[in-house]
Amino acid sequence: MRVLVIEDDAQAAAFLVKGLTESGHVVDHAADGKDGLFMAGAENYDVLVVDRMLPGRDGLSLVGVLRATGNQTPALILSALGSVDDRVQGLRAGGDDYLTKPYAFSELLARVEALGRRRAAEPSVRTRLEAGDLEMDLLARTVRRAGRPIELLPREFRLLEYLMRHAGSVVTRTMLLENVWDYHFDPQTNVIDVHVARLRQKIDRDFPTPMIHTVRGVGYSLRA
């Protein structure tokens, strides 16, 4: 499985990363809520391990934002707050499990793997994507905004699909080159800018609220 550990305590994070890696999992680490939210939205993880008290953005808020943008990656919340009300609050915020500190690593591993099995058992194929009034049917290869059909070329469709799958998050130019154009190098062209401009004309031109936003110096974000 691929696991993202979002933990600001360096010693605790190192312990988790080492233990999960030794158990055969691929593990990434984010040291604060801001980076954790970005990484969780930008990459495909099987399970998130999220500390509740994080700098930048607390764990419950982080999970809440992911759920609000359609990201349903299972999340195990870690916290020193262990009352019934605390656990209920964590689960209602969007957490799938809640483990109180201090914990035994064997229990944490069992809970992570249980969440991973649950994720694997869920239908993995999404045939429709939605962001606000924008709808994409992946089987029919159609796009509508506010019920109005929008004709896209194949590359534009692929670009919009990637933006919609990461709605609410910033996608970098490198991410677009790798996942939309299958480039693993910088072609030193403005191919991304040209296609985004064309897509923006079709998606935003006749509507009062723009959805495709430029994040200067970084990339783009589709926001409902």
Describe this structure in words.
It is a single chain. This protein is of the alpha/beta class and 224 residues long. It has 2 domains: 2-121, Response regulator (Rossmann fold), CATH 3.40.50.2300; 128-222, Arc Repressor Mutant, subunit A, CATH 1.10.10.10. Helix content is 41%, strand content 22%. The chain has helices at residues 10-22, 33-42, 59-68, 84-92, 105-121, 154-165, 173-179, 191-204; strands at 2-6, 26-30, 47-51, 75-79, 97-100, 128-131, 134-137, 142-145, 148-150, 170-172, 212-215, 219-222. The chain has a 5-stranded parallel β-sheet, sandwiched between helices. The chain has a 4-stranded antiparallel β-sheet with strand order 6-7-8-9, with helices on one face. It has a 3-stranded antiparallel β-sheet with strand order 10-12-11. The longest helix is centred in the middle third of the chain and has 17 residues, at 105-121. The two termini are 31 Å apart.
Question: Which terms would index this structure?
Answer:
224 residues, alpha/beta, Rossmann fold, Arc Repressor Mutant, subunit A, 5-stranded parallel sheet, 4-stranded antiparallel sheet
Summarize the structure.
This protein is an alpha/beta fold and 224 residues long. It contains eight helices and twelve strands.
Which CATH architecture of the largest domain would you pick?
3-Layer(aba) Sandwich
User: Uncertain regions: pLDDT < 50 for 5+ in a row?
Assistant: none
Return the CATH topology of the largest domain: Rossmann fold
H/E series, N to C?
EHEHEHEHEHEEEEHEHHEE
The computed structural class is alpha/beta
Strand order of the largest sheet: 2-1-3-4-5
Instruction: Tell me the total number of β-strands.
Output: 12
- Biggest sheet statistics: 5 strands, parallel
CATH class of the largest domain: Alpha Beta
State the helix count: 8
Structural shape: elongated
| Mean of pLDDT | 91
Beta percentage is: 15-25%
Q: Measure the end-to-end span.
A: 31 Å
**In the residues, how many domains can be counted?**
2
CA radius of gyration is 19 Å
Mind telling me the CATH superfamily name of the largest domain? Response regulator
The percent range for helix content is: 40-55%
